[in-house]
Amino acid sequence: MGDIKNKVQGIDPNVRARDVRALTSESSNIYETLVVITKRSKQLAIDIKQELHQKLEEFAVSSDTIEEVTENKEQIEISKFYERLPNPVIIATEEYLAGDLHFHYQDRKKKKPQQ
Q1: Which of 32, 36, 75, 114 is least surrounded by CB atoms within 10 angstroms?
Q2: What is the pLDDT of residue 26?
Q3: What are the angstrom distances between the C-alpha of 6 and each of 10, 70, 104?
Q4: Count of domains in the chain?
């Protein structure tokens, strides 16, 4: 995941309408396309969350008192960067439309009905 800054630089973080025909260019079914984008967005969300927690743990200070809360400017800047990232669904959709997202079927055989 480490290259999230480069990956999202040109992506507009706002949601916008999409052409359904453009989404179904690689697979002929819109539902299959949505499943692929959804699975990739879940992967991205998990990766981004893990990356954020790793970066914030570097600044973690353990103290015994609850009253003692300190602000760390680096921590705040890191959190603000991750808050401004586009939604993982938007990132996954852009990856799909750019052709960077590849998928395959594990088992495409149709089961015959038992008689």
Answers
A1: 114
A2: 76
A3: 8, 31, 26
A4: 1
